[in-house]
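Appendix B, record 7
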Amino acid sequence: MLNYVLTAFLLLTAGFSGAQTTISGSFDFGGDTRTYSFYVPASYVPGEAVPLVVGLHGLSSSGADFAQYRDFKPIADTANFIVVNPDGATLLGLKYWNYENIAGTNVDDVGFIEALIDTISANYSINQNRVYCTGMSNGSFMAYYLACESDRFAAIGGVTGSMSTTMYGNCNPSHPTPIIHIHGTADNTNPYIGTSTMTPIPDLIQFWVNQNSCITTPTIAAVPDIDPGDGATAEQYVYSGGVDGHTIEHFKVIEGGHSWPGGPMPSSSQVTCMDFDASREIWRFFSQYEKSGINDISEVSADDFAVWPNPTRDVLNIQSENVQFDEVSIIDMQGRVVEHRSHSNSSNIDISQLKEGSYFVQISGSNFKVIKKLMVVF
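Structure tokens (predicted):
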């Protein structure tokens, strides 16, 4: 059993529903009082398990800053998940995450974050197979450390951070974990090319590509430059074909600084790419995955399925010559299931009610789940 004592009475009980609410709390862990806040969307219904997203701030920042400037709340409102923003411990007056006994400290942040998940789960219905973690800078390092040291997370998102070289050499995840990583090439705090103690971003990506048994050659697409005046552009790298349909995604932000795309900080001099919203891309990525307990390479891939016509406007067909599948879900870019069919109804799916835009088709069976992209046009 985890040894912690809840010292702040949660302001709302598991019977809460019907109003969006931010809740603050604290509990004693490892001899310190640890603080956090979390957001419950109005769509939450007690007893119906929802995903949980853990958002980790950077060095000298706070959970409140992360919640304000890397805002997942509007996404949680539509996709129905709870987001928690804990505060790191304090070192030399600065809040930080202790991913490898930084400066000789022995704060157990893996244990704290696991205890935090248990604390929220004791009061709210959390799908334990859909717990995710994302972080910025020092919080990104911590997120990857959690992927290495904890078995609680279905997927990880990192922005402007990496793995330390020690972490890179010692990481042995308990299960394949898909990751999405976002990083600027002009980041002077955590350089894209790495340092003597920080893993270069191409090596970080390759590490997780290998861990998930993905195809090593990515699909590369330019992100539309919708804000030419922001000083940055971006490319999206997708490594597909991994175990259980896992992918690894990387947004390479050309000339981007130490910043969160789509979420500029007031008075910051860092170049912030405004061509995409990092928070929305991270949730879109997370929403595809549940925690995997399978460590063998799946023989089923997206290439085993024909999805046609694509693009389409009225109907969609799914077919496989070799693989038996049970369910088909169409998921929008906010992670919402907008259409669901059993195998028997997988041909001639009426999608005429869908709005024009990009979607994901999730095809699943008893031991696999794969994702294919879909364009709906008019």
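Remarks on this record: The two ends are 56 Å apart (CA to CA). The first strand starts at residue 4 and ends at 6.
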